[in-house]
Specification:
Number of domains: 3
Strand content: under 5%
Largest sheet: 2 strands, antiparallel
Shape: rod-shaped
Order of helices and strands: HHHHHHHHHHHHHEEHHH
Number of strands: 2
Length: 367
C-alpha cells in the first residue's frame, strides 16, 4: 500500500474532531447578514465530511452549537430540531425561513441596486478608490439581478451612469465621445465603457473638488462698448484713421442688424475683422502669436485638418462675447491645466478699451 493510501486510511480510522466553538476554524453565522446563512452551512458541511459526522442527530446538534447563544436557543426551539424523525435538511429548510434574503433566489432586489446608486450620489466620486467601491457594489448586485432575469443589460448601463454627478459626468462623456466616435447616438454607453472612461478621468491631474456638485458660471465679456472716458487725440496719424472708422462703422452695422433680426445667427458677424482665435483686430489666425504661445504651453493643438482644439483633443465652442482663446483658457482652468490666476487678455475687450477709447476724441472733433 502506498504512503498516500496509508495516510488516507489512517484519517478514515481516526478522523479529526470538530472545531470548538470560538475556534478560528469554526463556522460563523451573523444573523444581521442573511447572506451569511448559506456560507455558514457550507462551512459546517465541509467539517462534517472531514470529521466523519454522518448521523442526522449529530448534524442537527452541531448545526446549533456555533451560532451566538440567542440564535442557538431559537434554532433548538424549532420543531424540526426537537423531532427525531426530522432530518438535518429539514432543519436547515425551516431555519432558512427565519432569515428573508438567505434564499439564493432572493438575495438582491432592484431596490438594493437603486440604494447603491443613490448612496454613491450622496457620497460622491472623488477619486479612483471611490469609483472602484461603487463599481464592485453595483457589479455584484446588477449581475445577480441579470442572472435572475430581473434586470436587462440595457438597464444596467443606464443605472450605472446615474451614480455620477453632472460635474464628473461631463468629462467622462467627453472622454467617451473622443474614444468611441462611431458609437450610435440612440444607444447608451455600456457599463464597461463608462467605468473605463471614469477611471481615465479620475486618474488624471484634475483636483477631486472639481467633481463635486458645483455650478460653474462662464464669464461673458460684452462686445458693446460703454461710455468711454474722453482722451486726447494727439499722436494719431491720418493713415490710422480710415481703418479705425471702418471698424466702428462695421460694429454699428452689426448692432443694427442684430436689433432688426434677433433670431438670425450671429456666427458670421461675431468675429468681424478680428482674429478668430484671440480676437485682436491686427491679427489673423494663420499668424497668431498668442496661438503659438498657448500651443507651447500645452493648452491647445491644431489637428491634421487644421482645426484648433483643446490640449486633450476636445472641440471648443465659444459663448457670446468669447473668443476661442477664452474658451480654451476656461476649459484648461476646469481641467486643472492652469492655475486660476492665469487669465487671457480678451481680444474683444482690447477692441473696446484700446481702439474705440483711443479715437473717441477724434470722432468728437469730426462730428
Amino acid at each position: 500500500m502506498s504512503h498516500a493510501a496509508q495516510s488516507a486510511a489512517a484519517v478514515a480510522a481516526h478522523p479529526p474532531a470538530m472545531p470548538a466553538r470560538g475556534h478560528s476554524t469554526a463556522p460563523v453565522f451573523d444573523e444581521t447578514e442573511p447572506l451569511s446563512f448559506n456560507r455558514y452551512f457550507q462551512d459546517l458541511e465541509t467539517h462534517f465530511s472531514r470529521c466523519g459526522i454522518k448521523t442526522e442527530g449529530d448534524k442537527k446538534s452541531w448545526a446549533t452549537r456555533y451560532p451566538p447563544l440567542r440564535v442557538s436557543e431559537l434554532w433548538e426551539m424549532q420543531p424540526t430540531f426537537k423531532d427525531a424523525t426530522k432530518t438535518y435538511d429539514d432543519l436547515k429548510r425551516s431555519l432558512r425561513q427565519l432569515y428573508p434574503g438567505a434564499d439564493d433566489q432572493h438575495k438582491y432586489s432592484i431596490a438594493d441596486l437603486d440604494k447603491v446608486v443613490t448612496d454613491r450620489v450622496r457620497l460622491g466620486l472623488s477619486n479612483a478608490l471611490d469609483l472602484a467601491a461603487y463599481y464592485r457594489d453595483f457589479y455584484m448586485i446588477s449581475e445577480y439581478l441579470i442572472s435572475q432575469g430581473s434586470l436587462s443589460t440595457l438597464e444596467q448601463d443606464r443605472k450605472f451612469q446615474l451614480g455620477f454627478s453632472p460635474a464628473l459626468w461631463t468629462p467622462v462623456e467627453q472622454r467617451l465621445l473622443l474614444k468611441y466616435q462611431d458609437h450610435p447616438r440612440q444607444k447608451p454607453w455600456s457599463f464597461a465603457m463608462i467605468y473605463e472612461a471614469a477611471q481615465w478621468v479620475l486618474d488624471g491631474p484634475t483636483p477631486a473638488s472639481t467633481f463635486q456638485q458645483t455650478i460653474v458660471m462662464s464669464p461673458v465679456v460684452s462686445t458693446i462698448p460703454t461710455a468711454a472716458p474722453a482722451t486726447t487725440a494727439g499722436g494719431v496719424k491720418a493713415e490710422e484713421l480710415l481703418p479705425l472708422l471702418q471698424t466702428l462703422i462695421k460694429t454699428l452695422e452689426n448692432q443694427q442688424t442684430r436689433g432688426r433680426a434677433p433670431a438670425a445667427s450671429n456666427s458670421t458677424t461675431r468675429d468681424g475683422p478680428f482674429c478668430y482665435y484671440c480676437g485682436r483686430p491686427e491679427c489673423r489666425i494663420g499668424r497668431c502669436e498668442l496661438f503659438d504661445e498657448d500651443t507651447k504651453k500645452g493648452l491647445c493643438i491644431r489637428t491634421a485638418e487644421g482645426k484648433i482644439v483643446s490640449f486633450d483633443g476636445k472641440f471648443m465652442s465659444r459663448g457670446d462675447g468669447q473668443t476661442l482663446r477664452d474658451a480654451i483658457f476656461e476649459y484648461a482652468h476646469r481641467m486643472g491645466k492652469l492655475g486660476h490666476a492665469s487669465t487671457p487678455a480678451s481680444g474683444k475687450t482690447f477692441l473696446t478699451s484700446e481702439v474705440l477709447n483711443k479715437n473717441h476724441a477724434i470722432l468728437s472733433d469730426l462730428w
